[in-house]
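Supplementary notes for students who missed Thursday's class. We covered one full example, reproduced here. Read the sequence, then the structure, then the short commentary at the end.
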Amino acid sequence: MERLLVLVRHGQSEWNEKNLFTGWKNPDLTPLGIEEARRAGSELKKIGVKFDVGFTSQLLRAQHTLDLIAEEIGQPGLPVVRDLALNERHYGDLSGLNKDEAREKWGPDQVQLWRRSYLVAPPNGESLRDTVARVVPFYVQYILPIVLREEPVLVAAHGNSLRALCMVLEKMTPEAVTTLEIATGVPIVYCLNADSTVAKKRVLDG
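Structure (token representation):
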């Protein structure tokens, strides 16, 4: 058995479609997002993977994505852990704002800094470093031990919480992770070595 860890960013949400900062707000998937989640499940079904457990955030769009993937691969009763630690980065005062309106209010350079900087947080929100500080300990304590027991794990979460995980898995610098883009509904399959380093990575983008 391989030590498999699969990461999937949730499908398009209603606020993604409206170009709004979402963070900890709780919109559901759009019809396209549902289709993306089902396609992710279909891609995983093609490689024949079955999971022992799923992990997701406390936000509906990620939970719905995990449920749809589990249905597609024939595991509708997959045990699932839902935890705040895997939530999207908290966007603070930007939450619910249209991204174009935010650029008009604060300027495009400032908004881009809030969105992509590792260290700089939006007003009353989290930086990516803050997100890493809650995601990584949860991964090390709860997810990694299961993977190392050769029990495949599925994580359905968010762009920034998954960037935090990819940063650790791929030993990325804070500078490198700022340019990492994770597509919605595209499974990233990691096979780990016994020492928790990455042996293989595969992106199932069809």
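Commentary. The chain has a mean pLDDT of 96. The longest helix spans residues 128-148. If anything here is unclear, bring it to office hours.
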